[in-house]
Amino acid sequence: MKKFALSIAIVGFLSSCEDPELNKLMDEYCDCINTSKYDQESNFECIELMDSIQKKYKSQPRKLNKVLEKTNECY
Question: What's the pLDDT tens digit per position in 12-50?
């Protein structure tokens, strides 16, 4: 029972650790994706933005995972 409670506490802690900068970048990316649905010329901008986000967090696997999760929310 203690292990279960500890697991719940760890999951809660990790999910509460938000990164405002990452959230802002991903909001910009999602906005770009939504705009590119109507303006195909902005697709390249979205690709460049995602490349810069991935480069920024390339040495931080947890944040890269968060990028993937948030990317799915854009669609």
Answer: 445 556 899 999 999 999 999 999 888 888 899 999 999
Tell me which amino acid residue 36 is: S
Compute the distance between CA of residue 34 and CA of residue 52 in angstroms, rounded to an integer. 18
Query: Any idea what the Cα angle at residue 75 is, between residues 72 and 10, rounded to 5°?
Result: 25
pTM for this prediction = 0.72
Tokens found for residue 12: 């809660």
| DSSP secondary structure code for residue 1 in this structure | -
Distances (CA, A) of 9 to 1, 18, 65: 12, 16, 20
